[in-house]
Design goal:
The complex is a heterodimer.
Chain A (H helix, E strand, L loop, with lengths): L13 E7 L2 H18 L2 E6 L1 H15 L4 E4 H4 L3 H19 L2 E5 L8 H17 L5 E8 L5 H10 L2 E4 L2 E4 L6 H10 L10 E6 L3 H14 L6 H17 L3 E9 L2 E8 L19 H12 L2 E6 L4 E8 L2
Parallel strand pairs in A: 1-5, 1-6, 2-3, 2-4, 4-5
Antiparallel strand pairs in A: 6-7, 8-9, 9-10, 10-12, 11-12
Helix pairs in contact in A: 1-2, 5-6, 5-7, 8-9, 9-10
Chain B lengths: L8 E2 L8 E6 L2 H17 L3 E6 L4 H8 L2 H9 L2 E5 H5 L7 H17 L5 E5 L1 H5 L11 H7 L6 E8 L5 H9 L3 E4 L4 E2 L3 E7 L2 E9 L4 H12 L5 E11 L1 H8 L12 E4 L3 H9 L9 E2 L5
Parallel strand pairs in B: 1-7, 2-6, 2-7, 3-4, 3-5, 5-6, 10-11, 11-12, 12-13
Antiparallel strand pairs in B: 8-9, 9-10
Helix pairs in contact in B: 5-7
The chains are: A alpha/beta, B alpha/beta.
Chain lengths: 317, 292
């Protein structure tokens, strides 16, 4: 019988990595995990790919999967902030009112660029902070047979718990989320290409900046640029109000994405989780960065010498 | 019903030599615009002639209010003339005679040393003869005041609740320009204008880092007013998150039990932003759903 670690500290998130070698092992452990929801009065949710979902169906049968909400992983894990936003919307409106959430997730790794893998790992680390204290239990499945060793090592570093057929135990390699996030930031941003369009801004010049952004966005194929312009405008506003008072933007196209750098001559105080917490009515800076992150596919904030560089990416449909 | 239009001139920007109209939708709007026209005239050293329905200046002074106006009435800079005398001294309206009367007022004011004459009044003066005029409403005004001369400016108020949009268009066309209340704020980025039906503010342009202080200032000025209050946002092309937060929270400062702030015409991208920022529930302002 698998034992489950019971945490007495409600502020620690029950967030475990299931490192499985075979589909059978996955079905055993994940099946048990989902089954436990029934007796505990929890809300079982499975966000997984087709194969994993099928394996669970085979193991649990029609009766065993009754009341279990299945969500397609590919549709869910589109971007870290999108996924986090979707989680909060579902949890607040539907799951938490019915009981604690027991979530089984199979993150998507195949076909991801290095940068995206890094951000999804950061996402795993951030969850420990953002969801701490909420009635949430997470089990994230990692296939040891197909995923690279470095990724598996980072899974153990971003999950405070590890689960296998033998049970759940503390993850010895777990590192503090802030430290993991700082490691993610150690990789420098590639400088903008020489062809990037550039414009400086300061107080009073944001109308011109927005005109420039909308024009450049259109030139790069982004027709509905309201969200993009808004996001850059917010970062620029932050630079004017809280940062060095003036800055510059660089804008270019990279594959299917429009990329925009916003520089601030001042180093902003670094809160590694800024914009990851869902907005709270009276925390302005958080609401702003949350919205900015939601408006973009990826937002990277890096300390530069001197100052701060914020890189925003949006998809060009 | 057509309210103030974008092309309309703020009443603070009128010049001598013009024949202007105001289509007002409420007595409060008439008082605000005519009151400003009169006050600006007094400040500029013009003589102000007010054509009133009654012979009694007290009613006019009460309606427009202000100590400066009372002092001006006492020293003769502000004069109230009954419409009846101005128009129909001979029991029959004669445009030529009325024009001549205006000319006399101007000559007199010039002799008295005033730099110009401002003529306005109760709505009845510009409507005399309607609806019996052959060429639509405002014919009197067109014939009597169309050319006030270099030293006079005429403002004709029309109660637009009496007219169709088409008639209002004809009325406007009979004047050099239509005027509206002065903006609370206007620069190349944002314009904040008062509205009267319903009472409130209309925002046109963009709310951002540079124009937010003007928005906060305007909201604060209106915060203590009694009664419901409408923020018309249909002309808002851009609004950043701080601005959106301020608009959603409008009415929280100085909230009164008898007061509801209504956000009208919140553009769809801003609605989406409010959802993204998690602000579906902040603020006490009532968000009108767009008509479908």
């Amino acid at each position: 019988m698998m034992s489950e670690r019971t945490t007495t500290d409600l502020r620690t998130l029950h967030h475990s990595a299931l490192l499985y070698a075979t589909p059978g092992e996955f079905a055993d452990v994940a099946g048990q995990y989902v089954e436990r929801a029934r007796g505990a009065g929890e809300v079982p949710v499975v966000i997984a790919g087709g194969e994993a979902t099928e394996a669970l169906f085979d193991r649990l049968g029609t009766a065993g999967t009754e009341g279990v909400e299945f969500i397609d992983a590919a549709a869910w894990f589109t971007g870290p902030i999108e996924a986090l936003g979707a989680f909060h919307e579902h949890a607040r409106n539907d799951w938490w009112p019915r009981g604690p959430v027991r979530l089984l997730a199979e993150p998507v790794w195949t076909g991801r660029a290095d940068r995206d893998v890094r951000e999804w790992l950061r996402h795993e680390a951030v969850l420990n902070v953002v969801l701490a204290g909420t009635p949430t239990r997470l089990l994230c499945a990692y296939a040891t047979s197909t995923l690279p060793t470095t990724l598996l090592r980072d899974a153990a570093r971003t999950h405070p718990l590890l689960t296998d057929a033998g049970g759940t135990r503390d993850s010895p390699g777990y590192v503090e989320p802030a430290r993991f996030s700082a490691e993610c930031d150690a990789e420098p941003l590639v400088p903008p290409p020489l062809t990037a369009a550039r414009k400086v801004f300061a107080s009073g010049s944001l109308p011109m900046l927005r005109e420039f952004l909308a024009y450049q966005a259109l030139r790069h194929g982004l027709r509905d640029s309201y969200g993009f312009v808004l996001a850059v405008n917010e970062v620029a506003t932050h630079v004017i109000r809280e940062g060095g008072g003036h800055g510059a933007v660089w804008l270019w196209r990279e594959g299917a994405e429009l990329v925009c750098d916003v520089t601030d001559p001042n180093a902003s105080p670094r809160d590694p989780f800024l914009g990851y917490f869902p907005p709270h009515a009276h925390r302005h800076a958080e609401s702003r960065m949350w919205a900015v992150r939601r408006l973009c596919t990826l937002v990277e904030i890096r300390a530069t010498r001197p100052g701060t560089r914020t890189r925003l990416r949006v998809r060009v449909p | 019903m057509a309210a103030a239009r974008r092309g309309d001139r703020p009443v603070g920007a009128v010049r001598l030599g013009e024949h202007l109209c105001l289509g007002f939708g409420s007595e409060e709007e008439r008082r605000a615009v005519v009151g400003r026209f009169v006050a600006d005239g007094l400040d500029a050293g013009h003589k102000v002639v007010y054509l009133a329905q009654d012979d009694e200046p007290g009613a006019v002074l009460d309606a427009l209010g202000g100590d400066a106006l009372r002092r001006a009435e006492e020293n003769g800079q502000f004069v109230v003339r009954p419409i009846v005398r101005a128009y129909v001294a001979t029991d029959r309206f004669d445009p030529a005679e009325t024009a001549a009367l205006l000319g006399t007022e101007v000559d007199l004011a010039t002799l008295q040393g005033y730099g110009g004459v401002r003529l306005t009044g109760d709505t009845a003066f510009s409507l005399l003869g309607w609806p019996n005029e052959q060429d639509g409403p405002g014919g009197v005004c067109r014939t009597a005041f169309a050319a006030p001369g270099e030293r006079a400016v005429v403002l004709c108020p029309y109660d637009r609740r009496w007219f169709t949009d088409e008639q209002m268009t004809i009325l406007r066309a009979g004047h050099d320009a239509a005027v509206r209340a002065d903006d609370l704020y206007a620069d190349r980025v944002l314009r904040i204008s008062p509205t009267f039906t319903p009472p409130g503010l209309a925002l046109t342009g963009a709310v951002d880092e540079s124009t937010l202080p003007a928005v906060l200032d305007a909201l604060a000025r209106y915060a203590g007013r009694p009664g419901h209050f409408c923020l018309d946002l249909s002309g808002l092309e851009f609004c950043d998150l701080d601005g959106l937060r301020a608009l959603l929270g409008a009415g929280e400062a100085g909230t009164r039990p008898d007061r509801q702030v209504v956000l009208r015409g919140l553009p769809e991208p801003l609605r989406a932003m409010a959802r993204l920022a998690g602000w579906d529930t902040i603020g006490t302002a009532l968000r009108e759903e767009p008509a479908r």
